Amino acid sequence: MAYLEVKDLSKFFGTFQAIKDIEIEINEGEFVCFLGPSGCGKTTLLRCIAGLETQSSGSIIQKEKDISIEPPSNRDFGIVFQSYALFPNLSVFSNISYGLINNKWKKEDINKRVNELLELVNLQEHTSKYPSQLSGGEQQRVALARALATSPGLLLLDEPLSALDAKVRVFLRKQIRDLQRKLGVTTIMVTHDQEEAQTMADRIFVMKDGEIIQSGTPKEIYNKANSPFIASFIGSMNFIPASIDASKKVKCNDVEINCDIGSFSENDNVQLAIRPEEIQFQQENQDDNVVSGVIKEIEFLGSFQRVYFKTKNFSDELIIVDVPSSNAKKIKMDIDNEMSLYFSKEDARIYSI
Amino acid sequence: MNLFKFADIRRGKDSSDRVGQFMLGSYIILFLLFLVLPLGALISKSLENKDGEFIGLANYSLYLQEPALFQSLYNSLFVAIISTIIVVVLAFLFAYAITRTCMPFKGFFKLVALIPLLSPSILAAIALVYWFGNQGVLKEILLGKSIYGPIGIIMASVYWTFPHALIILTTSLSLSDSRLYEAAEVLKTSKLRAFFTITIPGARYGIISTAFVIFTQVFTDFGVPKVIGGNYNVLATDIYKEVVGMQNFQMGAVISMVLLVPAMIAFFIDRYSRKKQISLLTSRSVVFKPKKHFKVDMIMLAFCSVLALIIILMIGMAQYGAIVKFWPYNLNLTLKNYNFEVAGLGWDSFYNSVRLAFYAAIFGTIIIFVGSYLIEKLRINEGTRNVVQFFALMPMAVPGLVLGLAYIFFFNAKDNPLNFIYATMIILVVNTIVHFYTVSHLTAVTALKQMDKEFESVSLSLKIPIYKMFWRVTLPVCLPPIFDVSIYLFVNAMTTVSGVIFLYSYDTTLASVSAIHLDEQGEVAKAAAMAMLIVYVSVAVRLTHTIITKKVLRKTQAWRYNILDTK
Lengths: 353, 567
Prior knowledge:
A: CATH 2.40.50.100; 2 domains; 19 strands; B: mainly alpha
């Protein structure tokens, strides 16, 4: 039996349907992400689970107990918001102990628990500071400690890292992930950052227009994106208009592509999708596809370089190839160089238009 | 299956929800009792004859046939429009000098400009009598025209409404993005063109808003035309005459409705333009920092000095008049004018005013702040929220005189179970709180909006009832605006005339009202003394407030700046 079940959940704001017939099961100790662009309903779904929004229909079951109509104060969760929502007039200690005091804890137990949490989030020396005296990352850790203080069964994270600098974000990503593993608390995080979702989650639910359009492990989502939307939302993707000819072969303009056509049939108009990092300059297998292209532009992006190729008879758009910088040193890449681009049969995917 | 597909399912309630709902319900009942039903009583009174029978719009057609009454409407509009034009121009230039130039002594000018806020509006009228009255020092300046009439009303109105206009325009002008000016400079735009293409459009809504606020204030003011209007009748004095002089309540109600309608229209235009003003600003705007410009700075310095001098001369003359033995024949100084016993009055009215101000400040602040919190932060049904929000904004559209009259009709009715509050301190306190509700409410709402909207969610997730969080976090964080609200209520309770002129009784005379009656009896010096007493208290309270606020701020500085960062 799953720890948290969401059944047929819908939410209307006026006549606008923010989330549509959502079905989710989350196992105990799992870390899941609701991933999607802004306005896709992911935060609304999280707030319904917390009871901060009331759904229009459907039910939510936590630990085999139907909590669909319970007010938030009767549900078992801790929550962290993007804005931290730390109480500005209370010290770090008072913020973290905020929920403990009401639950009739003894004074020494509170001290012990707060110190434990401070250690957990590495903020021992900041006990008596006010939130405004801390950096954004530190504030977010205090918020995390406050949410965990009462040992909730479910931790909800609403875009917890979006307001932070890139460096801090990467650091906190790992810290939250480690903490979650250590405590084993079932966690749901809402994010629009695919990299965040991929590095942190056990399972990702990709949402669009109020619906879950795909769920699976980060790898599954990346490698087997079930729609061009997800393929381009998670990582980057070259899309090339193509059609399927009478002999059930994929054709991009005049170039015939060797790949699996799945359930498409002849004369379908489709699009061919290839990830920039899956295009090579050397042939690896006999049946690799090959196109030739001329370099039009090179972008230096640190660990890799993004190279734009103009192709003949293949695609009207420039083809993007990501080359690891370590490789790029060995290959001579200059504007107007002509090179052969290879990609395997497996890496070429077909989507409907 | 949920039949009402768009509606949310009913969620269970916890103690926070129940307390919130109960309180919200109480607010709706209070608003009905002390605002909506009295206004209803006023409307129904205007549709009755003297025997209380319904006669439709007969009173209104009677009103239209009465040329003298109709003339008052014209007079009211005339003084209100002229005063508004003068105030907007003066206050705009003053605000411009303060926000956009490097004029020296800005702090001093800001302080002086706010002086009129501390006195009842009649103080200006009394000072004008000393300056330009029949025995005035500068009577000749008027070239034979009398100060008693439109000239006096306009001058006094400009004086007492000036700071109100200045506050709105200063805010509006200080909310400007300096990058617009930088862009203009880079594009080689002349200063004058920048002024007309950036400054004026940017402050447009502030100017519109100011114009309507000032118009309403002058249009509905009672004290000034009463003291210095002479034979120049306006709507406000007409209502008073009909009700107090002729006991013609029905006609009083009709004129009240005539007063109410333009005030309502002005109110809605003001609300609309304020909303626009907010949308002009983005959080990324860079605050404008004025550059030195010798010529402009000096012109502005001269201009502000003249205005400041006039303000000081006005209040100074009121004070001088209050301590002169027998104007203008014996200019020896004396304190005998502060002895109100001779006028059969004593200091009771002054003490009553102070009591009223304290009660209004304490109870008003609590009620208004809690009310704005309920509307702003609780998860309540949208319909209920809108109803309470509307009630909270409504008082601003209702002139004090109209509200006071409505209270008479409603609470003086024999069969009203609340009849017992009539002619007591309670009705004065309630009336004052309701009359000044909206501005206080909006101040509180602005403060609450700056607080993270997820505090309540966090509290609920930690199983802390909302009211506990309110006490431990919201209240301490909002202390400065709470002080502001209480001081606003206090000073207005001290200075208001129009709201309470119908409601005081023998036991609850008030200082501002007494000043009017003293003036009526020809005791101008005593009227000045009484009005100055109000000023002393207002100043003392303001000073105390400044000191307390500074202390609170120092104590809490550690987190003060954080509120501004959190969205």
